[in-house]
Amino acid sequence: xxxxQRRKALFSALTVKVKDNATIALDSYNFDKIRTAxxxxxxxxxxxxxxxxxxIIPEVNEVISKSFRNIPNVKVILASYVNPYDLLTFKKVVFxxxxxxxxxxxxxxx
Length: 110
Fold this sequence. Notes:
about 45% helix; four-stranded parallel β-sheet; alpha/beta
């Protein structure tokens, strides 16, 4: 698939999520220990428990990745690996700070 078409598909999927009010932006994830309980607490506070949720992080973060990996219906993905399939498969999308900038840098650079 040509690069321009991939970009267009990605931004179309992002637009659909924004129009459906299915996106949430988090300023930070303030836990420093790998604990699933902390991740569940975050999802409960955002009213996302039980929802298929995609969490987009700007860079590799072992604490976030390992804390969320045991929760069913939750996937953590790097911003540089975001794809239309994941965006459309998951009902809610959570962006960590700087994730959108990383998506722009990755997919809008020529």
